Amino acid sequence: MKNQLLKAFLITCVCSLMLAGCGQKADNIKPQDADVKTEVSDESTEDKTNPNSEAEEEEGPVVSDNYDGDSHHAIARGPVVLSVVDGGTEDSKALLISGRTDSWNGANYDCNVFRGNKIRVNANIKSTAKTLRVSIQYDVDGITAYNWIASGTGGTDNYTFVTGTYDIPADVENIYVYVESDSTDDLYIDDFVVKVEGKYVKPAAMQEKVMADISGYASLKDIYQDDFYMGVCINPAVIENEAYAELVKKEFNSVTMENNLKPEAILDKRASLEDLENGGTHFVVNMDAAASELDFAVQNGMKVRGHTLIWHSQTPDWIFYVNYDTSGELADRELMLTRVDHYMKDVFTWADENYPNLFYAWDVVNEAIEDNGEMRDSLWRQTIGDDYLEQVFAIARKYAPEYIKLFYNDYNAFQSTKQNAIIQVLTPIAEAGNLDGVGMQGHLYTGETPEHFVQAATRYTEKLGVVVHITEIDVEEPAATSPEGEQGKYYGQLFRELKKAKANGVPIESVSIWGLTDSLSWKAGNKPLLFHGDLSAKQAFYEIVAAGKNNE
User: Fold this and answer.
1) Of 180, 367, 476, 497, which is the active-site residue?
2) Which of 19, 278, 532, 544 is 20 to 30 A from 268, alpha carbon to alpha carbon?
3) Where are the extended beta strands (E) located within 250-302?
4) Domain 223-254+288-306+346-375+393-548 in this protein, CATH class
5) Using CB atoms within 10 A of its CB, is residue 103 exposed (0-12), middle (13-18) or buried (19+)?
6) For 219-246, what is each residue's pLDDT tens digit?
7) 58 catalytic, yes or no?
8) What are the tens digits of pLDDT across the range 368-386?
9) pLDDT digits (tens, 9 = 90+) for 108-127
């Protein structure tokens, strides 16, 4: 997932929005799997799963904790200790989450009563961690989805108010809202509230889902085989589900790992600490998390976009510090460049040795520019300097096999202020021969014209002399009389414009949809993808098919 949720995220992702996108979490974690340690009394299961039930009929249920009483709704997420302590807002109590060993460790809140509703989450959170997040987890057809709701900036002695909304699909279960961060530092929570945004709809009984017959669907990868790769993002749970896997194989010939090639998934802190005797210059990579997805691609003749090596989000803070100690000093420029050199060498060598010719592109840097055109003040920039993009692209070029193209990837890359800044930053990198392409994330809405989006893609090729990939397409259903119809028309027009540009010589090499079904999307409530949760095709799919065949 994705940093767009950081814009809410965001996941985020991410974004994604992103936030992204979607965030990486432990696969299929359930609260009962955790080593639950609590220093306060627990409420009954009935109270936790249906809090304030007497308010349901009028205003909807509310999950609310200010931690000033003797009990709370929080459930340990991972091997953590939950303690009610002094130091909340306005001299009140707060929930302390300590003993965190992974960034996803935190506090879960059972939110099954909100299934099929739009929720708003409010929380005051405090931590020395730089990024604080409120996220959501639920199960869809045995697949656990993780998405960001909202984020805030920590790293101070003050509480940060984090708020965001999320539309929970009606066909999901095991729903938990949770609090986490980008590091393993302690978290404090106060004034935590989940409530309905708008009118409450009491969840209907879950029905057994019958998956659609996809045998008669046209194949997007075949229709567009002379134009560009047709891609999709995947995760291990998707490819382990036979119905989902068959749809992926039928429609797409390129895949992007949703999370398992992002820094937090491949950087091994324990192994890196064991290597400190060598000077702390080499953080260790472990690529095992992505193995099943990459093997799936190999077995089914698909190509892979690597996503992503350098990003401000879903990157553990410890890699930026001397001795990997976040309570100490930030690494200086020389140390970080040495670490990046080892990092790039290890990743590209591993890819070439284990999966030769599988990767055709890799996002070296993701989302380094803010919407206002300013360079994002990430820890990469703080440790290496304002020229960190030039530095890391030069290192990537040194180690990347010739068959892997090196990309810069960003959201809102079609907006003029941001696009001008991206072009300015990338120009010296392109002139040095270290940039092959720009990835334009396609997190779109029907108010943004496809013509404008494709014109922006054309400008990157003209100014930088590079190819373009459309990397993360999803289009929210609009508020309209026929939301799915309007969304479908937009998708069709977007693909017509992409085909037209390609025919006119614009080097668009790859187009990737950011997810398989609406229920699995990081924007699930906005139904932004090509297939319903039961795999039945939406109008968007048929419009893309028609555009590929040059039919109305």
Assistant:
1) 367
2) 19
3) 254-257, 267-268, 284-285
4) alpha beta
5) buried
6) 999 999 999 999 999 999 899 999 999 9
7) no
8) 999 999 999 999 999 999 9
9) 999 999 999 999 999 999 99
